[in-house]
Amino acid sequence: MLAPLTRHRLGVLAPLALLHTLVSSVLFLLGVDALLWIAVVGLFLVPVAMGLWLFSDRRTLSRLLLSLWGPAGEVMVFIALALVSQLLGGGIPQWVFVAVAAGPLVVLLVGGLLQLRGAERTTRIVALALWLIVIVGSAGAVPLADWLTALVGIDPLAGIVVLQAPALALGTWLGLTLAARLPEPDSLRESSDAEVQA
User: Fold this and answer.
1) Tell me: the pLDDT tens digits for 38-86?
2) d(CA 155, CA 145)
3) Residue 102: HSE in the Cβ half-sphere, 13 Å Cα cutoff
4) Residue 133: inside a domain
C-alpha cells in the first residue's frame, strides 16, 4: 500500500511525464543538433528528476536507485515500440497509430486521477491544470507532426515520434509506480534508525 503523499505525487507526475515526453518529441522532430541533444538528455534526466522528487523521503542511495526506474520504463517501452514497428514492417495500419497515442493517454489519465483521491485542493488543481495542457497538446500532436514534417522537410514517418510520446510517458510513470511499491531495504532502514538514535 502506497503512502498518501506518494500516491498524490504520482497523480501529479502522470501529466508531467506526458508533458515532458511531448516537448522532448517535438524537439527531437525538429532535428536541430542542439535541440536533439537537449531532447535525448532530457528523456533520461527529467524522469530521474521526477523520481528524486517522488522518493524524497527515502535514503539517498535508495532514492537514486529507485529514480532510475523512470527512464528504465521509458526505454523498455521504446524498445517494445521499435520491435512492434519492425514486426509490422512498412504497412502499419492506422489503428496502430491511434492505439499507440490514445491507449497510453487514457491509462495515464485514469491512473493519475485515481492517485489523487484524498489529495489537497492545491495538488488537485495543479494536476488538473497539467492535464488540461497535455490533453490540448496531445490533441494537436497529429497536425503538429504534419506541420513540422512539411516545415523541416523530414520523412513523414518521423512524425510518429510525437505520437509515441504518450507511450513513453506511460513507461516512465509505470516504472516509478512500480518502484514506489518497493519497500526500503532493511540495511538502509537500520542505518537510518541508527542515525536518528545518534
Assistant:
1) 777 888 899 999 999 999 999 999 999 999 999 999 999 988 888 877 7
2) 11
3) 8
4) yes
Residue 10's domain comprises 4-177
- The candidate with the shortest Cα–Cα distance to 23, out of 170, 169, 177, 175, is 169
Beta-strand (E) ranges in the chain?
none
pTM for the predicted model, two decimal places: 0.83
pLDDT at 149: 62
- 78 and 171 in contact (C-beta within 8 Å)? yes
Assigned domain for 192 exists = no
Q: Cβ(75)–Cβ(51) under 8 Å?
A: no
Q: 163 in a domain, yes or no?
A: yes
| Nearest CA-CA partner of 10 in 105, 115, 108 | 115
b vs e for 52-83, b when ≥16 Cβ sit within 10 Å of the residue's Cβ?
A: bebbeebbeebbebbbbbbbbbbbebeeebee
198: in domain: no
Residue pair 15/133 in contact by the 8 Å Cβ criterion: yes
Domains contained in the chain, number: 1
Residue 40, C-alpha cell as written in the block? 535525448
